[in-house]
Amino acid sequence: MQQITSLTNKTIKELKKLQQKKYRQKYGLYLIEGFHTIEEALKTNQSYRYLIGTADALAKLTANYNVKEDKVLEVTDEIASTLRQTNTSQSIFMVLTINQPKSFSFYPGKWVLLDNLTDPGNVGTIIRTADAAGYDGVILNNESVDLYNDKVQRAMQGSQFHITVLQHELGDAITSLKNKGNQVFASCLNDEAVHSNKITAGNAFALIIGNEAHGVSTQHLELADVKTYIPIFGQAESLNAAVAAGIIMYQFIL
């Protein structure tokens, strides 16, 4: 275990940079925070560079989990406060390796595809819901919010370690999924759309959820086999993207 007490320590300076997307991409690393998410990473044997925390936080974690001593950094409260990205930090952090394959072999299953979703809370919530509903994976296109954004990571609550989560070109993913026998549904409001509770999805399908303001893009709508919608009975113009995704995800499997 290494003890670090200086804010000017080189390693600490490098770790702080991971709060920015460009450095996460440059180093191939990202930072997570909080006991629950870190515990999920340890339970699922994720590859990590460092486990960082104050003495009290590390003692609490290592009482229940075996960790690699050579990867543990004990830091002061002051240093922990500079690494935190929440107002109520638990003073425990982990640096993990970004693991995004350059190619991926899609297979028949239950998938959610996110088309230009920009709200990190929505993206994280959808991934967590997909995990809870027993889906195989979630695919974000590159125009969606960065998967390794701290708000996305907090909203996922460790579900990213339970199912496949990829950032991938969506048109290619849709074509590949269809070639593997997955029927593709797109959530939208138009005259061709079928009420979501009228659909029998089976066990091999993909559901496209579109941008919070503009919906599923035209090119991806055209690739879908079936368009589906959730009716609005009140005066609201639309449903929140994560809420809509959750409703349809469960309707498709129940």
What labels describe this entry?
254 residues; alpha/beta; 60s Ribosomal Protein L30, Chain: A; Alpha/beta knot; 2 domains; 7-stranded parallel beta sheet; 5-stranded mixed beta sheet; 10 helices; 12 strands; 35% helix; 22% strand; elongated; transferase; rRNA_Methyltransferase; RNA methyltransferase activity; tRNA_m1G_MTases_N
Describe the protein's architecture and organization.
It is a single chain. With 254 residues, the protein is an alpha/beta fold. It has two domains: 2-97, Ribosomal protein L30/S12 (60s Ribosomal Protein L30, Chain: A, 2-Layer Sandwich), CATH 3.30.1330.30; 110-253, SPOUT methyltransferase, trefoil knot domain (Alpha/beta knot). Helix content is 35%, strand content 22%. It has helices at 10-17, 21-27, 35-43, 55-62, 77-83, 120-132, 150-156, 170-179, 218-223, 241-253, and strands at residues 2-4, 29-33, 48-53, 72-75, 92-97, 110-115, 137-140, 164-167, 183-187, 194-195, 205-210, 226-229. A seven-stranded parallel β-sheet has the order 8-7-6-11-9-12-10. A five-stranded mixed β-sheet has the order 1-4-3-5-2. Helix 6 links the parallel strand 6 and strand 7. Helix 6 (120-132) runs parallel beside helix 7 and helix 6 (120-132) packs parallel to helix 10. It is elongated and about 65 Å long. The termini are far apart. The mean pLDDT is 95. One of its GO terms (molecular function) is RNA methyltransferase activity. One of its GO terms (cellular component) is cytoplasm. This is rRNA methyltransferase. InterPro entries: Alpha/beta_knot_MTases, MRM3-like_sub_bind, Ribosomal_eL30-like_sf, rRNA_Methyltransferase, SpoU_MeTrfase, SpoU_subst-bd, tRNA_m1G_MTases_N.
